[in-house]
Specification:
Structural class: alpha/beta
CATH class of the largest domain: Alpha Beta
Strand content: 25-35%
Oligomer: single chain
Radius of gyration: 20 Å
Largest sheet: 9 strands, mixed
CATH topology of the largest domain: Dihydrodipicolinate Reductase, domain 2
CATH superfamily of the largest domain: Dihydrodipicolinate Reductase, domain 2
Length: about 350
Amino acid sequence: MKDIIKWGIIGLGNVAHEFAKSFYNIKNAKLIAIASKTQNKLLKFKDKFNIHSNNCYDDYTKLLKNDEIDIVYIALTNNLHSEWIYKSIEANKHILVEKPAFVNSNDAKKILSHPNFKNFFLGEGFMYRYHPQILKTVELIKDNEIGKIISMESKFGIDLITKKRLFGFYKTKKLDTKKRIFNKSLGGGVILDQGSYVVSMSLFVASLIDGINVQNFKLSTNYKKKIMEGIDVESSIELNFDNKFKSNLEVSFLNDIGNKTTINGEKGKIIIENTWKSEAGKIYIKNHKTNMIEIKNEKDIYSLEIGRVSDDILNNKFEASYPGTKKNEILISSQILDKWANE
């Protein structure tokens, strides 16, 4: 019986680097192959992560033909995800793709209807879900610490555009459209980038409510959106699931609005101070009194994600196990983001 899953990475940007360095302390997974069209990146990854020369490819298709590889981590720009998910399925590979998995819901539907899709694992790279603070939050909800869940607010925002000048003056920088996040054709924009996180968290919390149909959702008509040079750089919206749960979401490339998530129940609230980061977490419970729980995280969240996904594949699971993102969630998330970005 196989006891280790062998990984390949397609696309060697910053997130791929963070992902690759997280294999060092995982027993059930090994990174064996990499692919990039940039020779310099290939050489740096090869040397840093001790990848055999035969497994360093300047063509993504060649990596997919490597029979040793069990799963491909797709870390390309968002606009290329759908194409290489499809080709990976055709090559009989399991897949973990960086968020958002798709730039529109039509691509998601096409992939999910592939005749071989049910036979392969597809996960979306929301590593924050594997942080112990998320598991603790679920435990608190299930233990009825704040009663029936009724709503939540979630934020993700950092100022990537304002530049501080001498004497305390501020100036808005010209957007660098070579960067994926500021390039619409590459799947950029704050809604697809940071919005994918807050939507994922909303789906995760909503799914904890008994009897809710998360496929039945609607977006408020009074949402806010700011556009600069053709790219959405700030937006907020209310997301309503099945008329049983409301989620107010706010994302920004313009302002440091933080990473806080507040989950409101009939008897109180749970506040996650830093929802998306990998360091130690703090959860506040406010009901008849206020308590703070500090959550230690001894492994980085990419390691936790890699280990759990590898375990799923070793156990012949084609869906991500809890708390990972299931295939149906990926489709619903793509539909929500589609509406949010284009309405």
